[in-house]
Amino acid sequence: MAVGDFVFLDGAYLTAPEARISPFDRGFLFADAVYEVTAVYDGKCFDMDGHLTRLKRSLGELAFDAPPALDQIAEMHAELIVRNNLTEGQIYLQVSRGAYGDRDFVAPASTVPTVFAFTQAKQLIDTAASRNGIRAITVDDIRWGRRDIKTTQLLAQTLAKQTAKQAGAQDAWMVEEGLVTEGASANAWIVTQDDVLVTRQISNSILSGITRASVISRLGNLHFEERAFTPDEAKAAKEAFSTSASALVMPVVQLDDTQIGDGTPGPVTRSIQRAYYEAMGANVQAVAPWALA
Ligand code: PDD
How many CB atoms lie within 10 A of CB 43? Predict the structure, then answer.
């Protein structure tokens, strides 16, 4: 395959080396992007309407602010074909939520999408594979069952946090097959009515949180279990909190419409916050007197 000399980036036709995307682009940081690949034959896009319709749907599902106009996308494809003198091959188009020079799970509403496209010349029809066929193997479909790997594949979490924000909440706890997996960017914990501290066991279903492990190493004689729990069990719990390097030990006082406990951070959560802040070297009396109560 040969990439065409000219690419399209945010309204401009540039040579490939001229095209620069911010490292804060959400396509890079969160996989917060959609794409299309359209076949080109005889210098024309094939099935363009289908690709544009799916693109429109994908953009709508991600709810980008100010998504690109579809007729302009179609025009740009035609222009790239001409500029690169492409007869047979494909056009790759990616639209990300854009960059604003920072990293938050939910982007500011004013963020302008990044639109990038390039052409690839290649034989599509008369190839050895088309003539003779290919071999295939079967593999487990693990999309995306490998949450134990800390990848930047964060689109699902981004959407979860966006939904949370729209609902007036600050975080989302994700549920699979009736069980809480973890928070969108944190591990989830509850304190049951029997005063048992519970967090889900490590597996491919969750990220093995460093904060989680650090908290576990400081539990003292608290009664602790590693197992999955349902949203209902969490709602009926005495306390709930989440752990992450970005929010440390974060009390969760409401889940959906249900207040947890009395709706304020409970004593076990407070003791874990305290122990964690102290381990960090914080003067808790000075910086977090509320954690001593
Ligand atoms: N997120 N689970 C998920 C899905 C996470 O993204 C994170 C961290 C955690 C907690 O892991 P740790 O305790 O090692 O931070 C659990 C980081 C903080 C983020 O994306 O901002």
Answer: 12
